[in-house]
Write the structure tokens for this entry.
Amino acid sequence: MAPRALAIGRGWPGRLAALCVAGFLLAPLGAVLWRAGGAGWPGAADWAAVRFTLVQAVLSAAISAALAVPVARALARRRFRLRGAYVALMGAPFILPVIVAVMGLVVVFGRGGWINDLLGLAGLGPVSIYGLHGVVLAHVFFNLPLAVRLILQGWQEIPGERFRLAAQLGAGPAEIRRLLEWPMLRRVLPGVCAVIFAICLTSFAVALTLGGGPRSTTVELAIYQAFRFEFDLGRAAMLSVIQFAMVTLAGLAALRLSRGEGFGTGFDRVVPRWDARGRWLRLADGAWLVVTGVFLLGPLAAVAWRGLPGLDAMPASVWTAARASLAVALGATGVTMGLTLAMALARRGWVELIGLAPLAASPLVLGSGLFLLLNPVANPASLALAVTMAVNVVMALPFALRIVGPAVAGVEADYGRLADSLAMRGAARLRWLVLPRIRRPLGFAAGLTAALSMGDLGVIALFADPERATLPLTIFRLIGAYRMEAAAGASLLLLALSFGLFALFDHGGRWRADT
Amino acid sequence: MRHLAIATGLLFATQAAAQDPVLTIYTYDSFNTEWGPGPVVEAAFEKECGCDLKFVTAGDGAALLSRIRLEGARTEADVVLGLDTALIAQAAETGLFAPSGVEAGYNLPITWRDETFVPFDWGYFAFVGLKDGPKPGSFEDLAAGDATVVIQDPRSSTPGLGLLMWVKEAYGDRAEQVWEGLADNIVTVTPGWSEAYGLFLEGEADLVLSYTTSPAYHLIAEEDDTKIALPFEEGHYLQVEVAGMLAGTDQPELARDFLQFITTDAFQSAIPETNWMYPAVTPDGGLPEGFDTLVQVDKPLLTAPEAAAGIRDAALEEWRRALSQ
């Protein structure tokens, strides 16, 4: 389908937004290169890091996506109590700050963790979480929920009439799989894989902590080394370019692979499913949901469990930090949603690629570059929260765009011509046609953005303002001062706030959305 | 009327503050937290200097040096507080620092000869474990036994780098062999101290690389005496934290005053129980109770700063080879 120029302002705001994002990513990189006086060439150890990074990112993406398909299918064709809560839970692991999530995982899967306690009771030897499998396990924990939500959205976009027709024609689960579900998956999966691949590419703390040693060196750690150990800015920048290249290739591949027609339009209503009533299918779906639920809830429960006693050990600064983080998160959500809508409406391949690029940005290089650019004109500490917000906006954009983009494309494909013929354009088209139909993804995207912005530590280190720290930075400081209990309490607070924001927006989007 | 009086008062106060010269000190993040030494030091120095002391924080010691290098001669910093012996040579090489002119009777395990940097505290790296857990007495002991340990990556963390130099200094050409022996004891290598110490407290390993002073925190602040540091036969690697003034400072007098102030009681007495390190000059009141229970080291190890950079790269390569197998 050739991208059509849209009636809404012909998509120029989206293209402008995309250019701004590209500038935000490339200018700091350029600043670092300029300061270094040229690029450095990565050494043999760096290439080993590139290889390991690729392997773990490919594995993590493939496994997350593969496991997400049966879970999403079970959610799509079953109705049960607490289904709403289950779908909301799918946002939780993803939004935890890395150090908190790793500790949660360790409590469950670690050498002295719950799983090994159970194995010990059964008389089995301990299983180690450390190694490539540990890295992949952690990445699946982070990304499986995202994959489930994205794929579930694909299911919900198959018009209910198709299922009704299939039922009338006597199609069983196998035929439905071949005729309806497989074509949908072919369209959705490449994008899902590309996003998860890109997320795992810049993984740093997870990969190293659970990787077990220097075998598990990622590109981001090589950047750290070049930057901190050798102050070789040129090499750091070059490694960052390699990361961008890998994500761009993944994005291009996803664009190529995910071509395919949508299902066309239906009556725009959700229709119950008649297939998959067999007992075995019900059991299988139930099993998938239970296993996934336990896998995701375990580490979250561990975080809550460890955090409860710490809640009254928290110093007052935690609350100040929480307020700062909330303000940043809400601001970032507003801006991100604006950018996302504009870029989704532009519907260009290159706009979509730029939307994926922030995932490849090395926080260290981005932070240093921004610092080099801003330091001559303003005091970095006074810009701390503004920079944090801007970075959060750009970092959340890939997710928001991945969620909202396909929905907008679907609406335009189905109703675009009708709206054109009615000369419905600009704000009216957005308000009456697009927004009501993308409420659900928009709410999900807003929730995810808000939660991600609560949890992000990323770039702020160079801009840290001693008086106005964000909550994740405060947690890090507490741990650094041996105050593990207070840190656990603050982690629980962060989890509650992030998840609260997420659930609020997500629920707002889904509330009476089944028009 | 009252509002007017308050407003006038405020105006005078801000004017007074505006007239005070500002001394800008870059320090690592944990120094200037509400529970760190920062607030105490700031109040004490402002009382005697008639100036406004302003802390600017950046990550850890290595991040601090990176920031100074990024800013170069244009930096607003007058003093940098929080570099350590592993970074001194690189810091001096930038040519951004000026001689301090400070002299004091330091209580350091080594003789301090550096004229640019003023030491403010020090400590030894050590493996920390539990009172009733395994207690290897040397690296070879550790390698031969089956005690598990979490360490930090030397490429991204200060203690990790300390351990790298510790093994190298103690074993020289045999360092790689020692690392190969340790490989099966190492549960994992974390990017920073926080992750490693957290894993240790969760019971993921018997030992963690930290400082000989770590048990003092648990003992004094938490009244928990189950954490101990293990004395190693090879001796312990020393970390001295230092401050230095920038050559390009616009407040050379104040900066020098501050460096001198570092060696006084007002600064030093804050160190043990806020930074959990040994003060560079023991205050008149001595060390707080609890510090006497810590491991006493009779063989301090430290690579000369000038030689450190060259040794470091080779040692890193050995470390990577030994642990990647």
